[in-house]
Amino acid sequence: MKKRNTIAALFLLAAAISVGEPLLAAETGAAPLTLDEALRMTREHNPKARQASEEVKAADAKVAESRSAWFPQISGKAGYRYLDPVSEMSFGGSSMKFMPNDNYDARFTAEMMLYDFGRTASTVDLAKAGRNSASIRQDMTLRDLSLATVQTFYSVLFLQEAVRVQQTEVAALQTNLDHMQKRYAEGAATRFDLLTTQVRLAGAGNRKIDYENRLRNQEITLRRLCGLDENALLNLRGSFDISAADMDADKLAASALDHRPEVMLARENLKAAAYKKNLATREFLPKIVGSASWGASNGYVPNIDKMRTNVAAGVELQVPIFDGFRKSAALREATAMKRSAEQQRLDAEQMTEAEVRQAVNNLQSSREKIETTRLQVSQADLAAKHARIRYDNGLATTLDLLDAEAALAEAELANVQSRYEYVMNAYSVRRASGDLIRQ
Fold first, then answer.
1. Considering the entire predicted model, what is its pTM?
2. Domains of the chain, with CATH numbers?
3. What is the spatial distance between Cα 379 and Cα 404, in angstroms, rounded to a whole number?
C-alpha cells in the first residue's frame, strides 16, 4: 500500500508540474500564441522588417530619379549685376551708353537631353536591378527573422519541457531523500547513501535552474522578435509533431536554384554589373543637349534701362575628349566587377546545392534519433520501475535506484532534444530549398 501511495503521489506531482505553466498563463488572461501568429507579428512589427521595407521604397525612388534625365529640366533665375565702366560714345559733347551700369535679368530655362546613346537607359536598368536586389534582400530579411522566430518559439517549448522533466526528477529525488532520511534515522541506510542522494538532488536542482534561466532568456528574445512588451505573458500553443518534410535532395536542390534568395540576389548583382559596364562603355560617346529660355532683361538700345522680354533656343553637341583617364579606369573597374559577380553567382549556386544536401542529411539523422531515443525512454522507464521495485524489496542499492531514475530523465530529455532538432532541421530544409517560411 505504501509503495502504491508513493507512485500515485509522484504521478500527481508530475501531472501538476506539467500543466502548471499553461494554467498560470490561462488564469492571468494570456491569449494563446501560435507559431503562425508569432511569424505574422515578427513580419509586421520587427524593426529589421520595417527597415527592409523602407529600403525597397528608397530603391523605387532611385528608379524614378534615374528616369529624370528623359524629362526637361526647368529652372528659373533672377539676378542683378553692376558694371563699370561700360561701353559709351560721345556725340557733340554728350555721351551715349551702349549698356547700363545696372543690369537686371530674369528668365525661365528648359534644358533637355535629346540623345545620349543609351546612357540614361543603362542608368535606369541599373536602378531597376538595385530595386530588385532590395526586394530580394527584404525577402531574405523576413525569411531570416521568420527562421529566428521559429527557432526561438520551439526553443521555448523545448525548454519548458526540459524544465518539466527536471522538476519531475527533482521531485522524485526529494521523495527518495525523504525516504532515505527516515531509513538513515532507523539505521537501515548508511551516511554514504544519504550523501549520494543529496548530491544527486543538488545536481538535478542546478540543471533545473540552468534550464529555467535559458527559458527566460529565450522568452525575452521571442518578445523582442514579435514586438511584444517586455513584461507580456507568453502562452505558446504548439508541439514538435510536424508533418514529414520532403527528403528528395535532387528535387530540393533544383527548387533552390530557382527560388533561393541568395542565388537570385547573386544573379541580380551580375545583371547590375553588366549594366554598369555597359554604362561605362557609353561614357566615351557624345551627347546632344537642347535648351530654350524665356525672360526679361535690360540693356537694349535705344533705351538701355527698359526691361524687354527675350527668347533663346539652341542645340549643343558635347563630345568628351580627355578626362584624365577617368572613363577608361571606370570601364576597367566595371569589367572586373562583372567578372567578380559571375564568380559570386557560381559560388552561390554551389553553396545552395551543398546546403540543401547537408540539410537533408541532418533531417534524416534527426529522424532516426527520434526512433532511437523513443526506444531509450521506453527501456529507461521500464528499468526505473524495476529498480524501484527491487529497491523497495531490498534487492537494489540506493545508487542503483538513483542511476535508473537519472537515466530515465536523460532519456526523456534526449527524446525531446531529438524532436526539437528534427523540427529545426525540417525548417532548415525549407530555408535551403528557397522557402521564405511565411507560415
1. 0.77
2. 2-70+116-285+320-432 (1.20.1600.10)
3. 10
